[in-house]
Amino acid sequence: LWLRYRPLPPQAAAALAAQARSLVIAPGAATSPVLSAALGDLQRGIQGLTGRLPAVATVPQPGALLLVTPATAPAGLTLPWQALGGEGYLLRRVRLQGREVTVIAANADRGLLYGSFAWLRAAQTGADLARLDEFSAPRLPLRLLNHWDNLDRSVERGYAGSSIWDWWKLPDLRDARYVDYARANASLGINGTVLNNVNAKAESLTAPYLAKAAALAQVFRPYGLRVYLSARFSAPVELGGLQTADPLDPAVRAWWRAKADEIYRAIPDFGGFLVKANSEGQPGPQDYGRSHADGANMLAEVLAPHGGIVMWRAFVYAPDARDRAAQGFAEFQPLDGQFAANVIVQVKNGPIDFQPREPFHPLFGAMPRTATALEVQITKEYLGFSTHLVYLGPLFEEVLRADTHRPAPGATVARQITAMAGVANIGTDRNWCGSHFDCANWYAFGRLAWDTDLAAARVAREWVQQTFTRDRRAVDTVTALMLDSREAVVDYMTPLGLHHLMGTGHHHGPAPWVSDLERADWNPTYFHRAGPDGIGFDRSPRGSGSVAQYAPALAARWSEPATTPEALLLWFHHLPWDHRMASGRTLWQELVAHYDRGVARVEAMREQWAGLRGVVDARRHAEVTAYLAVQAREARWWRDACLAYFQAVSGLPWPAGTQPPA
Ligand code: GCU
Questions:
Q1: Residue 662: per-residue pLDDT
Q2: Does the active-site annotation cover 381?
Q3: Which intervals hold domain Glycosyl hydrolase family 67 catalytic (predicted)?
């Protein structure tokens, strides 16, 4: 991953070694498991990069790295402790009793851990350590991975092999990978992980599985990573033998209370439950005529005494919906103010389902009395699986920076949330994520969850420097290629606000013609509505009206094609094929141009990558090259299939100068 710690060239290695001659901690401090974890990676990193193992000491010599908290800071060191909060850190070069040293300062050991990884990041990305002054504290208290891992080790929408949780061998065998997994997460500031699929099996809450989860929690604890579980709402029936899972039934409540107590006996710092209820056939409180709030609050009540939380997902849609995009808001917004204090409503970034581009979900900012989490998908279910090179940093950045206008302009999604969850893309593949570049998406998720204001471009750059090379030209090339990749996939799959055109079930490849699925709101034709008259889903007041779920200023803007960004045009409007675009082209010509541009961008990415032969190691270079060839083939497949279909339903001739699909 990005913790390779490969040897630096001799001069750089010597310079770095001079900044990290020893690691200084207060006498006795090393007994803290978290601090030991921090020291462990500092030693491993410094040794790897410089060839010299720094000693752990208690007296600062020149060139020492000091790990300090308010309780252990040497006299004369004045630092802005308060601003650091519980998890933040400060890296600073200071002169202490006449000696040049670097301090890694935090209020607690967890901050020292994050600060240590930040120092290693600075060292690996070639920062000027002699002038180091870096302060960072996360705004979101909860930054979680959501594993959609099943107990049989299959992974829902996973493209990186099997689940890394070896349930058969746990709790006895603790694979060394669990430690590396925890290190990688800690290096980004990810502080929680939900182990099992949201489509949960009740068995995950039985004693044997709790013991397995407890073993993982023990491995993760020194890295500040808490364990959470997805809970199946009907577990009291399946495991407890009750007749009902009605959240207002006293026996049901008693069952969950006892279950929570049992979990906390096994895992004292258990984080809480993630729940998918009354969504895609999962059981939930509505089965008993109760609301999402009734269900969430019942679980919240039994977790509260232990300090646990409930993350209740808002991903719901009804089979008969006039507009599937409207359902989440319609069900959840009216419940604002009814959720217990330890409930977080977890909302996907967009109102449909992790499409290459969606507008932000209208629930963000619309539930001011409810804590909300932003859920993004790191695994690329709808973006070419792990084969297509798509760097998701720009997608995450786009949603975090989207202005909800609630209550006023400037209230971005990032300012509305208290947590960020990423559906993990990790598996047993040797490269962890199914492709080398998909590791950048795990990285980008963690970095942006820690600091929602970070630029995706900067994150890409530092990932490349740590993962591939520090060669300036190569870093520029790979970063540029990554930054282009998201718009490329939008162009060759679903440009101009189109969405949900993919193959049924597996979600790979194009299938815009599918119209006969058992549920209308699964059909691609339901979403694109292409016909002789035009294309697009009309969500304006003239259509489904769901644009009104956004703040009035946005709703007004997006109700008119002229003031809707072209990137979202067909999301909000159904327009005639000859609709005039900003470029002067007709909509049909513009659509063809976007599909062509997507294919061309992938070809450009291939060329850029080919130019790095010899700069990037041969094995990784070859593997990425092979995947880019697949991506180029599949980008054409997407373009040709979609355009051939749209051409057939529109009856329009091919725009002059373009090639009809073969
Ligand atoms: C998508 C995905 C499912 C998943 C669901 C969810 O629909 O295809 O596999 O279960 O999202 O987020 O719950």
A1: 67
A2: yes
A3: 124-432
198 lines ligand 1 (CB under 6 A): yes
The CB of 276 under 6 Å from ligand 1? The reply is: yes
pLDDT given for residue 657 in this prediction:
82
Tell me how far the alpha carbon of residue 276 lies from the centroid of ligand 1, in angstroms: 10
Pairing mode of beta strands 133-136, 89-96: antiparallel
Of the residues 152, 261, 269, 280, which is catalytic?
A: 280
Q: Which long-range contacts (CB under 8 A, 24 or more apart) does 545-553 make?
A: 545/323, 546/323, 546/325, 546/326, 546/329, 546/351, 546/362, 547/572, 549/326, 549/329, 549/333, 549/362, 549/366, 550/359, 550/362, 550/404, 550/405, 551/365, 551/404, 551/405, 551/406, 552/405, 553/405, 553/409
ipTM entry? 0.99
Query: How far is Cα 461 from Cα 471, in angstroms, rounded to an integer?
Result: 11
DSSP E strands, 365-508: 371-377, 419-423
| Whole-structure pTM value | 0.98
CATH of 492-537+574-650, one of 3.90.1330.10, 1.20.1440.20, 3.40.1190.20, 3.40.1180.10: 3.90.1330.10
Q: Candidates 201, 315, 317: which one to mutate for ligand 1, based on the most atoms within 8 Å of Cβ?
A: 315
Element containing residue 393 per DSSP (H, E): helix 393-401
CATH architecture of 10-136: 2-Layer Sandwich (3.30)
Amino acid at 411: A
Give pLDDT tens digits for 363-384. Answer: 999 999 999 999 999 999 999 9
User: With a 6 A CB cut-off, is 353 part of the ligand 1 pocket?
Assistant: yes
- Per the rule left: phi > 0, alpha: psi between -120 and 50, beta: everything else, 253 is alpha
- The reported pLDDT for the residue numbered 661 is 75
Task: Give dist(CA 468, CA 232) in Å, integer.
Answer: 42
What would the CATH number be for the domain defined by 142-467?
A: 3.20.20.80
- For the Cβ of 157 lying below 6 angstroms from any atom of ligand 1, the answer is yes
Ligand 1, atom 12: closest residue by C-alpha: 315
Tell which one of 280, 352, 377 to mutate to probe ligand 1, the residue whose CB is within 8 A of the most ligand atoms.
Answer: 280
